[in-house]
Amino acid sequence: MSGDRDRPDPPDNIEVEPAATRDRLGMLRVLDAAMLETDAESVDAAIDADDALVARFKRTDAVVGALIGTRPEPERLHVDAVAVRRARRGKEIGSTLVAEVVRQAERDPETELVTAEFDSKLEDFYTDLGFDAVPATDADKSDRLRGRRQVNAEGDCENPDNRRD
């Protein structure tokens, strides 16, 4: 990690923790309100694999943010979706969710890489969290970027086996 900037703390009234089955409906509501294409099966799979996080308002226990991870390969954790309720945006909740998933990946010796695909308007959000961003290679996704952040790798990003697409 390159410093405190990529490890934001949640606001005092918010806690970030692994998602549990009881969080499913709250997560689906947050993701749906953000118009993200995530279905109940994906949420369930991420919860079961311990690759889902929630940001919870401490006073009411309500889910105000959600992150869904997937494992396209055993050594890669992909941020499939991250969303925060509109009223809570701009308070470092989304950054905290992504930073926490990176911390989890760092603690997992099998995980070497955290990736994400996102709209180009979110480039600063991800690069501020230590991700490298490159254009998505699909012609129909010209406004999309792919981000990647190396964790637990024996080499560094200059290693030919770990280069970007």
Write up what this structure looks like.
Helix content is 24%, strand content 30%. The two termini are 22 Å apart. It is globular. The N terminus and C terminus are likely disordered. A seven-stranded mixed β-sheet has the order 1-2-3-4-5-7-6, sandwiched between helices. It has one domain: Gcn5-related N-acetyltransferase (GNAT) (Aminopeptidase). The protein has four helices and seven strands, in the order βααβββαβαββ. The relative contact order is 0.15. The chain is α+β, with helices and mostly antiparallel strands and 165 residues long. This is Acetyltransferase. InterPro entries: Acyl_CoA_acyltransferase, GNAT_dom.
Fold blueprint:
Blueprint: E1 14-18, H1 24-33, H2 40-48, E2 52-57, E3 62-73, E4 76-84, H3 93-107, E5 113-119, H4 123-127, E6 132-135, E7 144-150
Parallel strand pairs: 4-5
Antiparallel strand pairs: 1-2, 2-3, 3-4, 5-7, 6-7
Domain N-acetyltransferase: 14-152
Biased composition (Basic and acidic residues): 1-10
GO molecular function, one term: acyltransferase activity, transferring groups other than amino-acyl groups
Work out the helicity level: 10-25%
Distance separating the two termini: 22 Å
Task: Estimate the strand proportion.
Answer: 25-35%
Total helical segments? 4
Domain N-acetyltransferase: 14-152
Biased composition (Basic and acidic residues): 1-10
Region (Disordered): 1-20, 137-165
Protein name: Acetyltransferase
